[in-house]
Specification:
The protein has about 80 residues and is α+β, with helices and mostly antiparallel strands. It has one domain. Helices cover about 40% and strands about 30% of the residues. The chain has a three-stranded antiparallel sheet with strand order 2-1-3.
């Protein structure tokens, strides 16, 4: 994935996490990417980082069309 596309996805994700977590509780969200085929997965509004990462990885794995491996590139806890 090109660096500009990755940066844009990160910015959009951060905005979505901020918008989704309007309540007083903290919420976790993560982004997972697969380098070779540009697949991605994301999560938001999870109680803990582990569950958020698992969801992002599962979404990425469902979208990838190859044996490419998805990895977490960012997790964030928003208030």
């Amino acid at each position: 994935m090109k660096k500009v596309q990755r940066n844009l996805l990160t910015v959009l994700f951060a905005g979505a996490v901020a918008a989704a977590s309007a309540g007083p509780a903290l919420a976790w969200g993560c982004i997972a990417l697969a380098e070779e085929d540009d697949s991605y997965g994301y999560s938001y509004n999870f109680d803990n980082e582990s569950d958020a990462a698992e969801r992002a990885l599962n979404e990425c794995a469902e979208r990838t069309s190859s044996d490419d491996v998805c990895v977490i590139v960012e997790c964030d806890e928003a208030s």
